[in-house]
Amino acid sequence: MVLVYTHKITPRLKYAFKHIFTRILDVPVAFTTTIEEFIAHDSVKISYAKQPLGNEIFIRSHDLLFEQGLSDLDIHVQDWDDTKCFFTTSERSSVPFDIFAATFYLLSRYEEYLPHVKDEYGRFMAEESLAYKNNFLNQPVVDIWAYKFKTIVQAQFPEFKFPNRNYKIKPIIDVPSPYSFKLKGILRTIGGSLKDLSSFKFKRMYTRFLVIIGLKHDPDDTFKYILNRQKQSKYKFLFFFLIGDYSTYDKGVNAQKKQFVSLIKHVADYCNVGLKMSFFALEDPLVLKEEKNRIESILNTTLTASRQSFSKLNLPNSYRNLVELEILEDYTMGYVNHMGFRAGTCTPFLFYDLDFEIQTPLMIHSYHVMDYTLLKTQSLLDKKKVLNEIIREVKLVNGEFIPVFHNYTFSDIDRWKGFKELFNLILESANEA
């Protein structure tokens, strides 16, 4: 066991240390403010204070983990070998940066509580983040820091054994609507046909007609292909179905339709299923509760995972609503338009509420690439290159790679050409040594 001495044990301090030691390095960690207990400990000892006690591993502490609320932090990002870090320590410190304060800053999403410019959907943009501005969005820096620290511990305590963790994947299949033309109802079908006609999309109008009369397969109905891929993978896919009411933002299928309910049940036989919250459920806990009850009645089990519509997060309220409804996992954290690590990690972490200064039971699984982001890269070869680069970053720290694809990504529509190959590349990455 690792024992940490500090002058004051705070919720922030425990949160940051436990993420690095318990969740990334998989070793137990305890805390003490008693010097005698610290000296008597016969395993790994770390002091986190302004001055070292002796020859232990010492980290000169930044004030962040002992503060409450938000403050105007002066952050200078600097190079640290092949990565970046901030919150510089002193020469006497075993590491040149306070990686625990830096970890807390990134995981708590401290910067998202501060004033910032939002996009048209009200989302925090990658361009506003410290990681983007300082060119480390493409690295899981928290995991990299943890592995660097592990090397320092092993040098001083060679008899201490760290467990090995393995690279894994968790593919997300987001389903805003299971079908392009089916089950849309008479009014929406007529409206869609008139829209196709007025915008001269005659091929789409013809396809719509053939699908409705049963002579052609709906282009977005790719579930047979996805489930076949699932049967060949040891890693469970996680589907998120939108079952909220029709609105300006959400144009899914009515959750009362028997064929849609049957589809969800069929997918749940092979994969894990969660709730894709509607746009209005983000702000209204009553709507969220109704949608939660709706999917639980379809699945006949308790809902554990959610994903928010348009990948929109309003911290801390979005996550507080999930905690209130005892939803245990969320998969919204990430950027729609940029690949990378929004929270600086590829290890699931618990949501820390900065307003209440408490660690909550909600586990955040941040995604690292969305299919839409790959559209920005032109050729299939280049898409494979950038995808392999981010997979490599996760593999270097044996983390969990989470990509987000949609059911329509696997269709034969031109813009998604080659995406089946990209998905298979991700699946195969977990089989490589």
Helix tally equals 15
Largest sheet: 9 strands, mixed
Strand content: 15-25%
The helical percent reads 25-40%
Mean pLDDT equals 93
Poorly predicted parts: none
> What is the count of β-strands?
17
Cα shape: elongated
Distance between the termini: 30 Å
Kindly name the structural category.
alpha/beta
Can you list the strand order of the major beta sheet? Answer: 13-14-12-11-10-9-8-17-15
Radius of gyration: 24 Å
Q: What attributes characterize this protein structure?
A:
17 strands; alpha/beta; 15 helices; 433 residues; four-stranded parallel beta sheet; elongated
Account of the 3D structure:
The protein has helices at residues 11-24, 35-40, 99-107, 110-113, 130-133, 141-156, 185-198, 202-212, 223-231, 258-268, 285-299, 317-324, 371-374, 380-396, 419-429, and strands at 2-5, 29-32, 45-49, 57-60, 78-80, 83-85, 168-169, 172-175, 238-242, 272-277, 305-308, 329-330, 349-353, 358-364, 369-370, 400-401, 403-406. The chain is elongated. The longest helix is centred in the last third of the chain and has 17 residues, at 380-396. The chain contains 15 helices and 17 strands. It is α/β, with parallel strands linked by helices and 433 residues long. Strand 9, helix 10 and strand 10 (272-277) form a beta-alpha-beta unit. Helix 1 (11-24) crosses helix 3 (99-107). The model has no long low-confidence stretch (mean pLDDT 93).
